[in-house]
Amino acid sequence: MKAAFAAPFRIAMENNGVSVEQYFRKFHLPTSELSDPEALIPEKPFWRLINQVAIAEMIPDFGMQVAQAKPWYEIESLRPLLRGKQPLRKVLEKLCNAANSQSNTSAFKLHMDGELCWFEHHSDILINNDIQMENYRLTNMIELVQLAAGINWKPVFIRLIMDDNKVIRKNRLLEGCDLQFTQERTAIAMPIGLLNANVNILPAGTNISNKPLEEMHDKSEFIASLKTIISQYILEKDMSIDTIAELAGCTTRTLQRRLKEYEISYTDFMNEARMQYACTNLKLIDMKITEIAQQLGYNDTAHFTRAFKRWTGMTPSKFRSTQK
Q: Is the residue at 265 inside a domain?
């Protein structure tokens, strides 16, 4: 793989007070950082290293920490390929096309299925029980989508090649997601409409603030804050754009202008929030489907069923059966 991908491993180890030199020497990796990020280094030792550090140093979410130490879009050998303002679809397609040039074991694909797009990873398995590398890979995949959807976005459905285990469930990015284990490939699902959202890469360490929406000039910051507001008031009877603007502390005209500027559909925002609420509550066996439909403002279950199938590709009953 490209030498640039060693950097997040180093950073995550240093953040945890772990000796980079000791572990790199143990796995026959160059102990000094290579000056050429395009240089090639063996990949398999990193698969062993990431699991060994997680176990020996008792860092169960180490794979996630490596991914967050330096996301793919900040890696020197990838950054020139992904930079610039563009739709999420273009960013993911560029990654899919470039993946094999970055690592000869990896391949990514976009698979359309009804109203969902699956962002899939196809990989040669270099070692058995690949928990931490899959954790690392999955975190990076989610972070890429969050460039367009905001840092609070999570996929409703996630497929993993690993067996169910406590380690992967410690990844806080996966809380509330429908995890499907022992699948053929790692994949995350997103609404197809999200592919049209423009990407805006934030500087490392940027956090969402509590500023009013009208003072937010960063797209990801704006989207994340708007989603938080909508999710908190999704069951209110009057969820018009006027109501959301009032809750956000800005005028309706300002909110409409910002949505138009970022080419964002208010209806898509609302439907995604309804979908998230419905999926979460369908996992609770004591919640009747009719009750969930009524809470979301549907006059009858049939209308809710059609909407849910449009969002997820399956009926509420089918979705609930997959949770058993």
A: yes
